[in-house]
Write a structure and sequence with these properties.
single chain, 2 domains, ABC transporter involved in vitamin B12 uptake, BtuC, mainly alpha
Length: about 325
């Protein structure tokens, strides 16, 4: 029997359908931007993984790139030394990142938010140095090169234009989003929100706080591992950049731009971040980060809700004024 309190939140809205239809339309009608769509889908999946722990679990992380980079290197090394099958490599990268998440969750869940920030940053830094140290396996500062993938499902070869890669990334993003959506609207997800809002009260009513946080942290690590594997498989390359602090900062910025705690925030933020990055870096290659930071400051100072209301009112006035013309 469906719980009445969970039904309205879990119901699919028309805006959600429109979002995915627009994404599908971009793939079909704008294939010349396939490489950009792949980057957006990869960042969106990465941001989705961060939203699971930050927006729903209340776990702040400055080193989420640890799982992204682990998945990227795992997929690349597996393709070079074991099998170039993309789906098998994806599974290996996902399981490896999930295992890393499960192991580090024991450390991350201890202490305060400041402790978690430093621990997550330390984990990413350790992996960065290990990847740099074992250059015979990872390529070190030169990066992991020579990653060639077999055709997807034995039929679709990864082309230079990136069309197959964009459909591959979009399909994975859509499937994993549906799983995450179902999860956050389940009793497990409601328990996570209770833990995020008031951990002591959640403990008092019998919610197993540590187990649920460890579970969502492991799941988020797996999602980040998929995103990292996608990057390596679609570009044929992995470098130390996938484990850098800049990678963690970028995904956090994308999530802040879109909003936390409702899944679509990571997706919308990824679209805004990548488009702004492409446009601003083309206009001002040296100062694009300044304008990105300026946009973030405006959002924080003005408020996302007030900006949305102002845009909505403006659009309605324009529509009304145009409709009233003879």
């Amino acid at each position: 029997m469906t719980r009445p309190g969970l039904l309205p939140a879990a119901r699919i809205r028309s805006a959600e359908i429109l979002f995915w239809v627009c994404a599908l339309g971009a793939l079909i009608f704008l294939p010349q931007y396939a490489a950009l769509w792949t980057e957006i889908a990869t960042l969106a999946l990465f941001a989705l993984s961060l939203d699971l722990i930050l927006g729903y679990g209340g776990i702040v992380s400055l080193g989420h790139a640890a799982f992204f980079g682990f998945g990227a290197y795992a997929a690349g090394i597996f393709a070079i030394h074991v099998s170039p099958d993309p789906l098998t490599g994806l599974v290996v990268a996902t399981l490896g990142a999930a295992l890393l998440g499960a192991l580090t969750s024991v450390i991350v869940l201890r202490g305060t938010d400041l402790t978690r920030l430093m621990v997550t940053l330390a984990v990413a830094s350790i992996l960065f140095e290990l990847a740099n140290r074992f250059s015979s396996l990872t390529g070190g500062a030169d990066g992991l090169q020579g990653v060639f993938m077999d055709p997807l499902l034995g039929r679709f070869e990864f082309d230079l234009a990136g069309v197959v890669g964009s459909w591959y990334a979009f399909a994975l993003l859509f499937i994993l989003f549906l799983i995450a959506r179902r999860l956050v609207h389940s009793p497990f997800g409601v328990g996570l929100k209770a833990i995020r809002d008031n951990r002591l009260r959640a403990t008092a009513i019998g919610i197993p706080v540590n187990r649920r946080l460890a579970a969502v942290y492991t799941l988020a690590a797996a999602y980040a591992g998929v995103a990292g594997a996608l990057l390596t498989q679609t570009t044929g390359f992995a470098s130390l950049d996938v484990l850098s602090f800049q990678r963690s900062a970028d995904v956090l910025l994308a999530l802040v731009l879109g909003g936390t705690g409702y899944l679509y925030g990571g997706l919308i933020g990824a679209v805004i971040f990548k488009i702004m990055h492409d446009v601003l870096s083309a206009l001002t290659p040296q100062y694009w980060q300044f304008w990105m930071g300026f946009a973030l400051v405006v959002i924080v100072m003005v408020g996302r809700e007030r900006m949305y209301d102002a845009v909505t009112r403006t659009v309605r006035r324009l529509i009304t004024a145009r409709g009233g013309r003879p």
